[in-house]
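Risk register update: the risk of archive-format incompatibility is retired. Evidence:
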Amino acid sequence: MGTWKMDNLSVEKLSNDIKNGKITVPKYQRGVVWNKQQKDQLIDSMYKGYPFGSILLYEKNNNMQIIDGLQRSTTIIEYVKNPAAFFTDENLDEEIINKILNKLNVTGDKNAIKLKLIEIIKQWVTKNHKTMKDIQRMQYGDLVAEIINEWPTAKETEKEIKDLIKTMFNEFQNICEQISDVSIPALIYEGDESLLPEIFERINSQGAKLTKQQIYSAAWQDIVKIKDKKFDEILSINRDRYENMLDENMDLDDYNSTEFMKNREVTIFELVFGFGKMISKKYPYLFTYEEKEKTKVESIGFNLINACLVQRSSNLKNLNIKLKELIGLENVELFLSKIIEAIDYVDKKLAVGTKFKGNTRSDSRIKTLHTEMQIISIIATIFINKYADFQSNEKGDVLNLTINFLTNNKKWADMKEIFDKNILKIYAMDILGQKWKGSGDKKLDNIIIENYYYNREISWNDFEKVLDNYYTSMNSERNERKQVAMPKEPEKILLNLIYAYIFKASDQNDNSNYDIEHLAPKALMKSKISSYSEEFRLPISSIANLCLLPEYDNRTKKDNTVYQDSDYLAKIKSIEEIENRYTFTIKSDLAWLDEKLNEEQFKSAYLNFLDNRFKKMKNKIKENLFEN
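Archived output:
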């Protein structure tokens, strides 16, 4: 038998006791597995005064072990040591950021300028404030200087900008101080030490941590009647999920498969969950689809519906309420039908970039080239411009929102032509420039509310700058010798944009497969590089060294170029056809591989080959996207 008591530990005491070895971690405890989002959420809960759970300690001879609460404990200590690491967009006052934006006295894409401003502020915080003392002693001169250096037109309003920044960071300083003073609830257990592993196992076997979407399953219980047979799949997807749970020996309360399918009723959670699975299966080039993951709750249905309702990502928890208010449960099927129409439109418009066969064997192996939030932003833009009407204030709040399916909104008629002309260009530029790196929540919010991002002209000069920046940065980053990077999303989108326009319709619609090939072969390049100094590296996987070749024409000798492989040359109809349609080279372009060159000569020859071929690739893209 054991006994327990309640106590409260200050953040400072917990930190010191762990540091001094008075509180230790038993060997059977888990490692520190929380991700950044989980850590940020705990700190936010502490600041807001929400319950964040207790820690369970085992006490013996005035020393203690952490039985449960290791993640919370380590997160709290990490925060005390470096609070700036937890600085997020939530710590930025939207209203003050907008006021600073106005003080910059600049013109152009306000959304892009705003994102750059936020990036500068966040980097300044994390770079210059490593401890709690640094936070309390914040000085803003360096930050203001960085802002003025980026936007010299802000010099006239330097003092106003500094005052705004000070006001904003006073709040962050208060947050840090409040969290430092928080008391941590602790359950302290005394008893037989041999029972501790069992206690730990019981505590941690009561259920896996839930995603936010899974949490909604308990709250979103309003019933929707499925009437349209085209949404039968939503019913079967939910049935399969529950049957899968039963297969895993889980008892489900108040569930019968036959009755479920007969009644045709789902909760809002089941509706959104099933819709996400349904569109993922139907549009595998737009959404990630996993056939085996029947019980997994993906975010796509939740985030897409939320965006089409013109709601910020942070408001996802209220999606069920907004769905009832703005659409009405009786109109949900019509609402989902209109979203599918927008999805289908985007699927067709991006097909050249997403659906070409480069290195794809079947739909089950398709990997999307974009992030979830990027594709949602495009689909939601169409839906919102067709059916939504609203205003927004300086803070970016959505006002007077209505959604009407009776007539198409004039906004879509006005922007359709420019959208159709430029969407594939913007889509590719964003992938090349990694514009959606990270969660993408804020970028998505800005796009659906400001309604500018996909309603703009893209010139060849705009596109070429992104191409050149990508090419230069990738060549400098990929210092390869023994390990060569696999083709990534930017390479695949560029190859698609080049070859989808070159190949005939019959080439794309038959059952042929295509392989991404290295013109200067990987094996040969690695062999050559290894003959030079140990430090010698080159970007073997550069986009300029890649091409597509049909599988039936593909070379068998991977260490030879197309000009060195006699078996390959004997099989093909014409080397000129290979050069014109696939490689964009002539034999002399790769002659340097047969020459005896020193290290610098070899490097120069290879980089010169890349530069010349990349120019040809750019010309193909220009012709395809801007001249056709």
